[in-house]
């Protein structure tokens, strides 16, 4: 069987890389166009595309292209960082549960089942709406422009680790009965060394696939929360809160909603396609047939 990726995977990878590079290079695009993404000009409200503003202007005259790129930096950052944090938490807990077994494994898996049973979006909405000042959080942090970003990352990470934990546990239950793990234990290797050096590297395949899928899921959650006004707060742009601003002008200026909506769709689709490709590539049966 050929190990060459299929055309759809290549297109998804190319689009994902282009999207990340474009968002990372937002300041360069801003300087090249000679615009300020935060500068308002009411005389240019809903202006059509031009040489200086390729995608036109928004409801207060800001350049739409640069705001989309800056919003993409936030949305992608939330998705990637939250997914990595969730994968780290889930991997550690899943491997600990699977390797330790017994009561610890039972308690942790019941906790995981309980979190999975929760209506996740509703829980995220409630947690995102909590007033941080009433929790005794210092005012300096509460009033920071990055507060909403940090809160969304933490909330999504703390409720997105369950899938990785179950996959890591299942892989650990299989691996701990393998000869190389039993040999390491017989030679006196401590449990932490067995888990880190022998179990974790061999359990990475399902963890990587679940992490890739989680990036797209977190981007959707961030977009929904920001759309509801509970996520990333203006003036910091994200694709979700750009949709919020555009919903009242969907008939007069549909492009304000179409562009961020399309970028969310493209980003999530690329994550899902790349996760599917990664699952096929890491499939041991496929590797044996090459």
Structure report:
The protein has a single domain, classed as MetI-like fold. It is mainly alpha-helical and 290 residues long. It is 70% helix and 0% strand. The protein is elongated, with a radius of gyration of 22 Å. The relative contact order is 0.14. The longest helix has 37 residues. α3 runs parallel beside α8, α4 packs antiparallel against α8 and α9 packs antiparallel against α10.
Identify the notable features of this structure and list them briefly.
290 residues; mainly alpha; MetI-like fold; 14 helices; 70% helix; 0% strand; elongated
Helix-strand blueprint:
Elements: H1 7-24, H2 26-33, H3 64-100, H4 102-117, H5 120-128, H6 139-142, H7 147-158, H8 162-175, H9 179-186, H10 191-202, H11 204-227, H12 239-246, H13 255-282, H14 284-289
Helix pairs in contact: 1-3, 1-13, 2-3, 3-4, 3-7, 3-8, 3-10, 3-11, 3-13, 4-8, 8-11, 9-10, 11-12, 11-13, 12-13
């Amino acid at each position: 069987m050929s190990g060459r990726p299929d055309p759809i995977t290549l297109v998804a990878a190319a689009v994902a890389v282009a999207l990340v590079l474009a968002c990372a290079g937002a300041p360069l695009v801003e300087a090249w166009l000679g615009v300020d993404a935060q500068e308002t000009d009411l005389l240019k409200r809903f202006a059509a595309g031009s040489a200086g503003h390729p995608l036109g202007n928004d409801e207060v005259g800001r350049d739409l292209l640069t705001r989309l790129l800056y919003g993409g930096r936030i949305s992608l950052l939330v998705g990637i960082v939250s997914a990595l944090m969730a994968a780290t938490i889930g991997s550690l807990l899943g491997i600990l549960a699977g390797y330790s077994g017994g009561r610890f494994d039972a308690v942790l898996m019941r906790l995981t089942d309980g979190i999975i049973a929760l209506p996740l979006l509703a829980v995220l909405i409630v947690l995102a709406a909590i007033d941080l000042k009433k929790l005794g959080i210092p005012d300096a942090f509460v009033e920071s422009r990055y507060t909403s970003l940090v809160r969304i990352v933490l909330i999504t990470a703390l409720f997105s680790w369950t899938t990785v934990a179950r996959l890591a546990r299942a892989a650990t239950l299989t691996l701990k009965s393998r000869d190389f793990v039993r040999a390491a234990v017989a030679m006196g290797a401590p449990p932490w060394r067995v888990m880190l050096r022998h179990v974790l590297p061999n359990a990475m395949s399902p963890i990587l696939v679940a992490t890739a899928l989680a990036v797209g899921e977190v981007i959707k959650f961030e977009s929904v929360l920001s759309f509801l006004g509970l996520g990333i707060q203006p003036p910091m742009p994200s694709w979700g809160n750009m949709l919020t601003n555009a919903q009242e002008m969907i008939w007069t200026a549909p492009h304000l909603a179409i562009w961020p909506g399309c970028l969310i769709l493209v980003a999530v689709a690329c994550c899902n396609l790349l996760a599917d490709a990664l699952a096929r590539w890491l499939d041991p049966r496929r590797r044996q047939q090459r």
